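Our consortium's second objective concerns turning raw sequence data into structural hypotheses that experimental partners can test. To show how far this objective has progressed, the report includes one record in full. It was chosen at random from the queue rather than selected for favorable results. The single chain below, 208 residues long, was entered without modification.
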Amino acid sequence: MSQFFQVHPENPQLRLIKQAVEILRAGGIVIYPTDSSYALGCRIGDKNAVERIRRLRLLDDKHNFTLVCRDLSQLGLFAKVDTAAFRLLKNHTPGPYTFILNATREVPRMLLHPKRRTIGLRVPSHPIAHALLSELGEPLMSVSLILPGETLPMSDPYEMRQLLEHQVDLIIDGGFGGLEASTVINLVDDEPQVIRVGCGDPTPFGEV
């Protein structure tokens, strides 16, 4: 049976954030809000938790996970960022974008794209997500909370509780979530490429 925390979306209660981080450090899976939609998250090196998320979402080993980072300096530990990419990242983080970049050796192999050593990274501008990441001190391994057979992320925390309370360890209720995932931008090649249009405006990155 999962825990259910009602956390203020603008001024998260530190006591609840600390408890949430304890659950993550103990190997838990957490549902939490971001500036795009709700997401599933766990610690990046926790193979058991990653496999539980794969089963819950029915994901194969080719699905790209995302590292959700506190800020650009933390992102830079896990991705190779050249000058052009850094300029784009600086202008568009925090925000509802996921950036595909070449990974550094800090990224566990199980999270990498099987053919290319790439990883998705994002810096969300949501107070609850930021508080979790600041307290945890490392990125969260995340995927959007889209259930098998659905095209839109779940948005109602009470519905999440009803459907998933036996499959996750904590649901953070930060109010109704968005119905669009983040916009995905590939920064591996010379020109930025929009891979998926979500709630982030794709126009600064060229034509879709």
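The partners drew two points from this record. The mean pLDDT is 93. Residues 69 and 139 are 5 Å apart (CA to CA). Both points have been shared with the crystallography group to help prioritize constructs.
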